[in-house]
Amino acid sequence: MTHLGTQVIITFVAGFILGMAVFHLLPHALEGIESEHGFESLALWIMAGVATVIIMLRLLGFHQHEFGSSSKIEAELADRDAHLHSSLPMTFVGVILGLSMHTVIEGVTLGTSIRFAVDGDILLPGLGVALAIFLHKPLDAYSITIIMRDAGISVNVRWLINIGFALICPITAIFSYFVIGTLEEVLHERIISAALAFGTGAFLCIALYDLLPEISFHKHDRFRLLGSLFVGVALAYGLFFLEDVIHQG
Questions:
Q1: What is the rounded distance in angstroms from the CA atom of residue 34 to the CA atom of residue 101?
Q2: Rounded-to-integer distance, Cα 3 and Cα 15, Å
Q3: pTM of the model as a whole
Q4: DSSP characters for the chain?
């Protein structure tokens, strides 16, 4: 994982997550609106998703996207620190707690999107959301591993914690999928709409607040990073287009 390679991956994943929020989660959430006040409720759930992720990021400071060292990287980090109002100490406990809560939100979004697709007889249920999580989780696990290594945690414990972390999303997705399925039809649709709207806000915040600032603070290779961002967005739109074609067919 070189510095440039890491940044290219991060911006690609950010673009893909951004595209998933706009092209997939938001339209599906809108389909659940039934009353004249439905848009207001939906907007509140989106803002709740944004606020939740921002609060977790600020209180727990759990994302670390800088790996490696060079004079260029160190100069840019110093420039970035000058723009931040405060810095939070990053302990492996805070990282694990923050990323676990972060993953629970993604798991609920995944389970809800699959339930929505299954109810609507849509093929490839939850594929886009699953892919967004699949691409994003290795970066989170990488953060956990690096910080635990620097804290002197043994290799065996690192393995156990990463295995536990890897299980959070599928367990949460399965749980939310079946819980929503047990609800009455009216409540069932409202819960799905609200959960997808909340997931929209969370995904938007992850992409725009957490990942995309990497482009702003990395003056070198900016065009390569922008290209990586647009490729991610294009992939998300491609899946949206494919889903629409399959559904209509």
A1: 31
A2: 19
A3: 0.78
A4: --HHHHHHHHHHHHHHHHHHIIIIIHHHHHHT--STTHHHHHHHHHHHHHHHHHHHHHHH-------S--HHHHHHHHHHHHH-S------HHHHHHHHHHHHHHHHHHHHHHHHHHHHTT-SSTTHHHHHHHHHHHHHHHHHHHHHHHHTT--HHHHHHHHHHHHHHHHHHHHHHHHHHHTS-HHHHHHHHHHHHHHHHHHHHHIIIIIITHHHHT--TTHHHHHHHHHHHHHHHHHHHHHHHHHHH-
Q: What is the pLDDT along the chain (249 residues), one digit of tens a residue?
A: 677 777 888 889 889 999 999 998 998 888 877 666 678 888 999 999 999 988 887 776 655 555 544 444 444 444 444 443 344 445 667 777 888 888 999 999 999 988 888 877 776 768 888 988 988 888 888 878 888 887 788 999 999 999 999 999 999 999 999 998 887 776 778 888 899 999 999 999 888 877 776 666 666 677 888 888 899 999 999 887 777 666 555
Residue that is written with structure tokens 């989780």 in the block? 137
Tokens of 241: 């287009």
Tell me the residue type at 220.
H
